[in-house]
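Why does residue order matter? Because the sequence determines the fold. Keep that principle in mind as you read this record.
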Amino acid sequence: MKILVGCPTSQHKAYCLKEYTAGVKALQGTFDVLIVDNSDSDSYLAELKSAGLPAVKGPMPTKIKDRIVACRNVLRQKVLDEGYDYFFSLEQDVIPPPDALQKLLAAQKLIVGGVYTKHYRVMDGDNEVGTQERPLLWTSVHGKIAQWTMDALEPTRVQQVLFTGLGCLLIHRSVLENISFRWDVSRKGFDDVFFCTDAQKFGIFVDTSVRCPHLEMSWEGIEK
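Structure:
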């Protein structure tokens, strides 16, 4: 079985390079790694290589969202051109437990992810009153899309979902043969939303026992 682990990245994620490198190197199993850098300069590409992560420079459209999608499609094309069975999309700010890949493979699904969370703003009218931690998982409840709460992660299990992020997602090549990564400026959401929308026919699952720290960054002041 041939597996490619990787993600798009840029110098904005340099703050978690050490943790990510350690997480990838601790992953159990046999796999290849490729990181696709879309930084404005080549200095971060050199940092990635110095950390022991195979890396290449990706396409450089003007908008950051376009760069990310183009880089993700570089990884998709490598999977298809070089006979990989799976692409393990592992974002640089998502740190996997050592057994993450083995557990996801054991689920025997075409698309299956691990769990990582984010702190969402809690609003009272126009006022922010705090934050709440929630997993990046959504399902349908009475015909409406609803985000999971932390309580929903128990008991641990493999569960079908409508949407999840691309931060820790194992994707079989047969899916990538039919779907490329994309986004549409005229519609809400980014490439993870569009991927899940396009991939519904394959079934999207999550193993709630695979818990990944999410070293999320602030995009404040960064034009996406």
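The mean pLDDT is 93.
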